[in-house]
Design goal:
Blueprint: E1 2-14, E2 19-20, E3 23-24, E4 29-31, H1 39-51, H2 57-60, H3 73-86, E5 89-99, H4 109-120, E6 127-132, H5 138-141, E7 145-156
Parallel strand pairs: 5-6
Antiparallel strand pairs: 1-4, 1-7, 2-3, 5-7
The protein binds magnesium ion.
Magnesium ion (MG) binds next to strand 1 and helix 1.
């Protein structure tokens, strides 16, 4: 088994889509980013890459490369899982914590879990999605940013 951890943060601005784990959530603001800004999938990808010691998403999908402008993070996640699998590591379970002042994530939790499960090839029962506020403190508390922490366990498939 290998463990990987990822973290990401994006500014929230009006006129952008709010994507969390590949699910678009109706809200007045969304993540600013070179890609689609999906903070959950970015943290998850870094966790998977970390477990497989495959550098990070900034290295694989540089934000100064026009190829990745508005990139679909769901597709990037599938690619990251493919790369990890190709060197002998497949996801065993995933746990993410979203830190967001508003809107409430709970109504979308099951859709996010299902989406992450399909992107990683896991059963939904192996995908944990938690959300919390930052108690009104800091940039996240002011509604100017969203962050996500992700932990993944990876099974070694070849010895
Ligand atoms: Mg990011």
């Amino acid at each position: 088994m290998r463990i990987g951890y990822g973290w990401d943060l994006h500014r929230l601005e009006e006129g952008r889509r709010l994507l969390l784990g590949g699910i678009e959530i109706p809200f007045s603001k969304g993540e600013l980013g070179h890609s689609d800004g999906d903070v959950v999938l970015h943290a998850l990808m870094d966790a998977i890459l970390g477990a497989a010691a495959l550098t990070d998403i900034g290295d694989l999908f540089p934000d100064n490369d026009p190829v990745w402008k508005d990139a679909d993070s769901s597709s990037l996640t599938v690619e990251v899982v493919r790369r990890a699998t190709s060197i002998g590591f497949r996801p065993h379970n995933v746990d993410v914590t979203i830190v967001l002042q508003a809107p409430r994530v709970a109504p979308y939790r099951e859709r996010i879990r299902s989406k992450i499960a399909s992107l990683t090839g896991l059963g939904v029962d192996r995908v944990g999605v938690k959300a919390k506020t930052s108690e009104g403190l800091g940039d996240i508390g002011a509604g100017s940013a969203v962050a996500c922490h992700a932990v993944v366990l990876m099974e070694e498939t070849v010895k």
